[in-house]
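To: structure subgroup
Subject: Chain for Friday's discussion

All,

I'm putting the inputs and outputs inline so they're searchable in the archive.
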Amino acid sequence: MDTDFLRSFLLTVDSGSMSEAARRLDITPAAVAQQIRALEKELEVQLVERAGRTVRPTQAGHMLAANARAIVASVDNLKFMVNISPLAGELRLGAINTALLSFLPRVLNSLRSECPSLHVSIRSGHSSELIGCLQNNELDAVICIEPNFAFPKSMLWHVFRQEPLVLLTSARTKEDDPETLLRENPLIRYDRNLAGGKQAERFLVNLNVHPTEVVELSSILAIALMVEAGLGVSVVPDIDSKLINSLEIRKRPLRDESHRRVIGILTHRHSIKSDVISRLVRCYEALSDA
């Protein structure tokens, strides 16, 4: 069984589209369809079916997808093991949007200068989603928010940074007291399904403030843009983003610093990519100390 065919099948299942799978693999949709038909012929079952404009797996397809991911990951690990350099090959990295908007671009640039033969593929998403992908061996490491449960001993956690909550206001706002600002202005709420949003909600509850909410969303950059436009104020984690820092807004520190979001990198303790991941951690630390 050709693992490249399995890879095409998995991408089709994940994206719901042969065209999207073909785009990611840089081949034609016809080639993807041919590879899936070859798998169906070899296994003597139908693996996918049309559902309107999308493609979805059959019951047999679901069973194959559940087991094929580990097979493809094992083959990738074998390729990595026999590679001449442990700092070459592919690193499958998961990252929350906050990391992508702040420190990760500089870290990857530094890593690239040290490991020019390394290819990094990045999957963005929420922390819980990325941790699940890591546990399923779909990713080698994830940069995420520290969850509120204990990691298994097979996992290794390294803290990158702690982010206190701040109050974002328009640069035109003259009032300095955060509590007064929260009581007198509409609130642009950070998504309460996210760790930072839950911390912001606890802060407001502890302060006994119930502002008028105008919108709730999960992007800190989008929130900052709305604050700049004068839509309201917002309590968010203090991320070090050049995009956000360039806006005409002010970050006001909050008196209660007990609500801090912890960001770090999570990986398998005995990962075959441990050399590359350790190098990535050192690149982050070097940039943080600079």
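Points worth raising on Friday:
The domain at 162-261 is CATH 3.40.190.10 (D-Maltodextrin-Binding Protein; domain 2).
The longest strand covers residues 155-170.

D.
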